[in-house]
Amino acid sequence: MTHETAYDVIVIGGGPSGATAAEQLARSGVSVALVDKAGRIKPCGGAIPPRLVRDYAIPNELIVARIDTARVIAPSENAVDMHIEGGYVGMVDREHFDEWLRARAADAGAERVTAEFLSLEQNEDGSATVILRTPRDRDGETRRLCARCVIGADGARSKVAKEALPKHRAPKCVFAYHEIVEADPHHPAGDRAAENNQAAGSPVYSAERCDVYYQGEFSPDFYAWVFPHGKTASIGTGSANKGFALRRAVEGIRRKAGLDTWRTIRREGAPIPMKPRRVWDNGRNVLLAGDAAGVVAPASGEGIYYAMLSGEIASDAVLEFLATGEAKKLATARRRFMRLHGRIFWILGIMQYFWYTSENRRERFVRMCEDPDVQRITWQSYMHKELVSSSPVARIKIFLKDTAHLLGMKAA
Known about the structure:
Helix content is 35%, strand content 25%. It has helices at residues 16-27, 50-55, 94-108, 159-164, 190-200, 246-257, 304-324, 332-355, 359-368, 372-384, 392-406; strands at residues 2-12, 32-36, 47-48, 65-67, 69-73, 79-83, 89-91, 111-114, 116-122, 128-133, 142-152, 173-182, 209-213, 224-229, 232-239, 264-273, 286-288.
């Protein structure tokens, strides 16, 4: 038994990219179905920059913490505090943040559909049909939705991409795993943790600081983190090494930070793409966005801002496609995104390749983070999502220091 309904656009995936695309399209007056699985929560540290808060009108109540410092920890336990001047890093809980975005899309006019995407069919008239299974469907029963265009925003292992772009390989991924724990506001890390950390030179948990571990025991090729979320905290790690024991690494971080006795609320894991896909559309009626398009920043793993921006850009491209009937309009989404952020993705990719590959290089990377110019440019670029201009002297100084660290000319 099947049920078929027609829309202008069907968005598969209700994370930040899909929900943003659905909202923008609905506000433009087209009919939209927003399809998302029930009970899905994306594993994520939950950091968002002030520009996202401003550009996408995020209410204060969704920001569970405002971070003013990031502490980076080297293999030697040397810790460098990177203070944010004139800004902050906002922290959100994806369980509530994503649902708020989906609800906003529905308020704008998108129809929410709770279902699992099964497959995609191409129709003779140029439209596409998606086959779904809803939680209420019996064995063999499906629901069919037809649309002039489909946006695949269904994650790094996108089923939509596999169906619509079978000849194009997905980018390599880092597999991320984290545990959400209940934070103790009165004794943030406990007396035992404070004693252990003071003796080892390790950081004590702070509800206003992100801790980032560049230590091979916790990640051989990425980093591990402790991010405060107000009443909770995210403790996680990531690695592209399939043999690396992510859960064991998180257990180690929790012991080191004195958070092993805090109650675990939930555990989550998922792949995170580290490079944008070369092709985002099928040249006919399907366009990718978010993790499905690979828009997660290398080195940092930041994805929420880029996901929402790609959803907005995808909606613009789809509106042009609907208005003109020209499938080539869909390809403008990737070109526009890469014009805006391709350069920073390239730089971050090089940084991850050079600095995350050995304990010696991680040690030098953390030491480089002590430089005030490096900190200022890092935070300004993060908060405003632009490559910040600096004085010629500062640029030369950073270049020389970076080169000296890379070549081992400065003591670690």
